[in-house]
Amino acid sequence: MNSIPNDKLQFLRGRRSIRTYALGDISEVAIRQMLEAAMAAPSAVGKDPWRFVVIRKRDTLNAMAAALPNGNMIATAPLGMVVCGELDAAHDRQLSYLLQDCSAAIENLLLSAHALGLGACWLGIHPRADRIQKIQDLLALPETILPIAGIAIGHPGELKEPRTRFNRDYVHWEQW
Q1: How high is the mean pLDDT in each 10-residue block of the chain (176 residues)?
Q2: The whole model's pTM is what?
Q3: Dist. CA 151–CA 38, nearest whole Å
Q4: CA distances to 3, 120, 149, 155 from 61, in Å
Q5: Are strands 21-22 and 50-55 parallel, antiparallel or unpaired?
Q6: What does the pLDDT read at residue 113?
Q7: Homologous superfamily of 33-154 in CATH?
Q8: Which of 80, 93, 96, 132 is deepest in the core (most CB within 10 A)?
Q9: Where are the domains of the chain?
C-alpha cells in the first residue's frame, strides 16, 4: 500500500506536538472556536461528558507545569486547557465511554488549534492518581469531575515537518 498524496490529509500530518511558544495572546474568538470544535466530537449516545477549564493566569500555568511531569512547556504557553469528564454524564456512567469521548474532544481541540495557526501539546493526566489529585486541587474541581488531559496552546515557536507514523505491520485485513 503506497502513500497516496492528498492535500486535505496533509493538514492532519501537519498537526504536531508543539512544545515551544512564541509571544502572543490567544483571542477569545479563537478560544471559543477551539471549544466549539472540541464539543463537535463524537460522543457515545450523545452524552457529551466533557468539561473544560480554560487557564490564562501565569501562576496557574506554572503550577500545572510543576504538577505534570514532562509538562514544562505549559509554563511558557499563553493558554492552557484541562479537558475533564463528568462520570455521571457519561453513557451508562462508564469510565471507558468517558475516556473515549474526552479523547475525541481532545483530538478536535488539537486539530482546531492547528487550523487556527496555533501550536498545542497534549499533556496526560489520567490515569495517574498523583497527577489527577494535583490538578483537582489546583483547579478546585468538584469530586464528580475527573481531569483527563492538559493542553498547552500558543503561537508556535518551532516548526515541525508534516509526518505520518504509518506502519503496515500494525494493519491486518479481515482477520489477525
Answers
A1: 71 96 97 98 98 98 97 98 98 98 98 98 98 98 97 97 95 98
A2: 0.95
A3: 12
A4: 40, 14, 14, 16
A5: unpaired
A6: 98
A7: NADH Oxidase (3.40.109.10)
A8: 80
A9: 33-154
